[in-house]
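FYI - complex with zinc ion, inputs then prediction.
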Amino acid sequence: MEDRILGLHHITAIASGAKRNFDFYTRVLGLRLIKKTVNFDDPYTYHLYYGDKTGSAGTILTFFPWESIQTGRRGSRQATEIGYSVPESSFDFWLKRFEANNILYNKVSEKFGESYLTFLDPDGLKFELTVSKNQDNRQPWETDEISAENATKGFHHITITTNKLQPTADVLINIFGYQLLQSSVNRYRFVTDAVPNANIVDLVEIPGEGIGQVAGGSVHHVAFRVKDDQVLMKFRAKIEAAGLNITEKIDRNYFYSLYFREPGGVLFEIASENPGFAIDETVELMGSSLKLPEQYENKREEIVGHLPVLD
Ligand code: ZN
């Protein structure tokens, strides 16, 4: 059990403006900013982490905001929808909220026996709020305007659009331990029973779909969760044995990571639960100050001078 992939760890996407991104996710959607750091490969831009109170795996949505980046295009070889789990009867609340904040949304629909509400973030990143068929007992982060009866509880699923189902399905089934649960037309729902939530990947197969462009408003990568960096290395061996290229273990301060491109073209990451987001600030203070990796500490003043003010 403990050696398994434990559903989603985090999802990372690209935004155009840091301030607008911060306002939307903390105020409109009501997530908690749990970590404010920089892109380790580009320290003059933020890496913003949003999640529940403690930054639990399966609730973490992160952004690289590049102020002047162009808008991407949804297409194949991309993760194209991010699903959040919401309480039953919360749709009226969200519909009013989207209306009041000029958010683009669709009417409530249903798939696989679950109701969902689609909306776009200010950069066009596509989301679904889904009322899960399975009980979701995760404690949401609450704000002044969004109480637990409406608040998002963390991820429900991620959707990947692909030209060809099987190669990506093989990774999910043979390496990650997921199973095909259901399919409808060209949407195939895969699930792992290793965890009760954030455990769904939908593959949408569209043979003729053009390749998506990863830029503003698109998902950069999808990270799956393992217990610790020992399990991480077991998966590294499995992925290599399957003939896929995979990075060495990378220290991301809050977790250890491996990256590989799955055969359908989406960048997958495997991330460990250890050491976690409380390593450099208490739960109460999470997200309140800019955290820099050691190698950039001596440039703090210069870096802060380049970063937009968030609040
Ligand atoms: Zn990541």
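The domain at 8-306 is CATH 3.10.180.10 (2,3-Dihydroxybiphenyl 1,2-Dioxygenase; domain 1). Residues 10, 12, 221, 223, 269 surround zinc ion (CB under 6 Å).
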